[in-house]
Amino acid sequence: MSRASDTHGSGVINRLRMTIHGSLAQNAKFTTKSDYLGVSNDARPGDRFVVVAGCEVPVLLRRNEENHFVLVGTAFVLGLMDGEAMQGVREVKAKVEMIKIR
Questions:
Q1: Is residue 20 part of a domain?
Q2: Residue 72 lies in a domain
Q3: In the structure, how many helices (H) and strands (E) does the chain have?
Q4: Residues 6+ apart with CB under 8 A from 43
Q5: For the chain (length 102 residues), average pLDDT per consecutive 10?
Q6: Which terminal residue of the chain, N or C, has fewer Cβ atoms less than 10 Å from its own Cβ?
Q7: What pLDDT sits at residue 93?
Q8: Does the residue 21 lie in any domain?
């Protein structure tokens, strides 16, 4: 690799780092009861993050005054972004639960 491409590559890496840092600074970080680390735009204590069959990313749910789950938004959860949740179900480390979102 030439020095010119190293310099250009470093600039791209630095911009990527700044973008990621800025994105993380604007989002709420959370940990789950199972010690997963996640990032979402509006996570609060008591929220539930769930993996929904057919959905590409985990979602964040919150109970409202009527005790119904409402969709808060999506979440990035380290270790559950690439189908690991289904692996957990197969290994009986996670459970499948039916919920109603209103």
A1: no
A2: yes
A3: 2, 5
A4: 28, 29, 30, 49, 60, 72, 75
A5: 49 66 64 83 84 81 90 85 71 72 73
A6: N
A7: 64
A8: no
Give the domain range for residue 62. 28-90
Longest dimension (CA), the chain: 63
Q: Are 72 and 47 in contact (CB under 8 A)?
A: yes
- Amino acid letter, residue 73: G
What single letter denotes the amino acid at residue 51? V
Closest Cα to residue 93, out of 75, 79, 73?
A: 79
Residue 62's pLDDT is: 92
| Any domain includes 8 | no
Beta strands 69-77 and 28-31, pairing class: unpaired
**Contact by Cβ (8 Å): 58, 38:** yes
Q: What is the pLDDT of residue 32?
A: 82
Contacts of 1 (CB under 8 A, 6+ apart): 9
The SS3 call for residue 33 is coil
- CA-atom Rg of the chain in angstroms: 18
pLDDT at 18: 64
